[in-house]
Design goal:
Shape: elongated
Structural class: mainly alpha
Order of helices and strands: HHHHHHHHH
Largest sheet: none
Strand content: under 5%
Distance between the termini: 40 Å
Number of helices: 9
Helix content: over 70%
């Protein structure tokens, strides 16, 4: 990690506006096992710099969403996940993160559309079905929710232990 970090930092000194380097440095900071407690904040700053250089970087938006979700900054997470999904309409994880955060803040009806998109993109993901089922159930769509819970149970039993509903 250290040689790569030094190389990325050298590239940034040579050309601070180069596309992709801040993203790579941010990813490295998050993946480095000995990065220290300030690594998430340092990585966040790198992703923000990347977005200034490349506003179309859906990956940077997504990771910023994950960092915000981890810190329970729900509005920020929702904004970042929705932006990542807009930038890359095939980004299933962004739709799932977006929908999950909306469920967390009890905006169940709003969560259904992004979760349906995540379901279309990754129909075999049990987490998508569970989160969608929760949104449907809590917004009054009981029959649809039961179908999704059943799909979740089926997928979960095929892949391992279930999480409680």
């Amino acid at each position: 990690w250290e040689p790569a970090e030094l190389e990325y930092e050298g590239m940034i000194k040579t050309d601070p506006g180069a596309r992709g380097i801040h993203f790579l440095l941010g990813r490295l900071l998050l993946s480095r096992p000995d990065a220290g407690p300030d690594a998430p904040e340092r990585a966040k700053q790198e992703f923000l710099k990347e977005i200034q250089i490349d506003p179309g970087n859906a990956g940077a938006e997504y990771i910023l969403g994950e960092l915000a979700r981890h810190d329970e900054q729900w509005d920020e997470a929702i904004l970042r996940f929705s932006q990542a999904a807009k930038l890359n309409p095939n980004y299933a994880e962004a739709y799932l993160g977006w929908g999950f955060c909306l469920v967390t803040v009890k905006k169940y009806e709003d969560a259904i559309a992004p979760l349906r998109m995540a379901e279309r993109l990754t129909p075999g993901n049990p987490e998508v079905h569970h989160t969608l089922a929760t949104a449907l159930e809590r917004s009054g769509h009981k029959a649809e929710a039961e179908k999704e819970f059943a799909i979740h149970r089926s997928l979960s039993s095929a892949s391992g232990p279930q999480r409680p509903e």
